[in-house]
Amino acid sequence: MKKVFFALIASCFLSTNIFAQASATPAEQKEENPNGAVITFEKLIHDFGTIPLKGNAEFEFKFTNTGNEPLIIQNCASSCTCTVPVCPREKPVRPGEQGSITVKYTTTNVPGAFNRQFTVTTNAKNSPSRLTLRGEIDTVEAVETSAN
């Protein structure tokens, strides 16, 4: 009885291992498509340096479609409401053309260093892209000037 039980257990493990390897083989043999859009940013990280408390900062991340098919920006998302990316979704970016994503960073009431990331999702082969804003919020509040 023990031999039958052991043989049954061994055959289950063996068959699981065989099926797992069989399903992995086609994925390993899959060739990468040479066509497609590729988004290439001039820089992935921007450092604002020191900015005043309750001030605003804005930066434009420039990119180029270095692929050979049109690039479609599908989504720009941030995990923080202080970082607001504005993505160009009106039309596809053709191969060789440039575009930009403007990001606004609002300093609230927390002085100190910050490091915020947001994600750009596209139809590119190298999607998603993660971009970063860095800097330090000064303890001195921004002074608003008005022209009267």
Description:
- With 148 residues, this protein is of the alpha+beta class.
- It has two domains: 1-30; 39-141, Immunoglobulins (Immunoglobulin-like).
- 19% of the residues lie in helices and 44% in strands.
- It contains one helix and eight strands.
- It has one helix at 2-29; strands at 39-41, 45-53, 56-65, 73-78, 83-86, 98-106, 112-122, 129-141.
- The strands form two sheets. A four-stranded antiparallel beta sheet has the order 1-3-6-5, with no helix packed on it. A four-stranded mixed beta sheet has the order 2-8-7-4, with no helix packed on it.
- A hairpin with a 6-residue loop joins strand 7 and strand 8 (129-141).
- It is elongated and about 50 Å long.
- The N and C termini lie far apart (98 Å).
Task: Describe the protein's topology.
Blueprint (H helix, E strand, L loop, with lengths): L1 H28 L9 E3 L3 E9 L2 E10 L7 E6 L4 E4 L11 E9 L5 E11 L6 E13 L7
Parallel strand pairs: 2-8
Antiparallel strand pairs: 1-3, 3-6, 4-7, 5-6, 7-8
Briefly summarize what is shown:
This protein has 148 residues and is of the alpha+beta class. The protein is built from 1 helix and 8 strands, in the order αββββββββ.
Helical residue percent band: 10-25%
Rg on CA atoms, Å: 25 Å
* CATH topology title of the largest domain: Immunoglobulin-like
User: What's the CATH class label of the largest domain?
Assistant: Mainly Beta
How many angstroms does the end-to-end distance come to? 98 Å
What is the number of domains?
2
Order of H and E elements? HEEEEEEEE
DSSP strand (E) fraction?
35-45%
Instruction: Report the biggest beta sheet as strand number plus sense, adding barrel if it closes.
Output: 4 strands, antiparallel
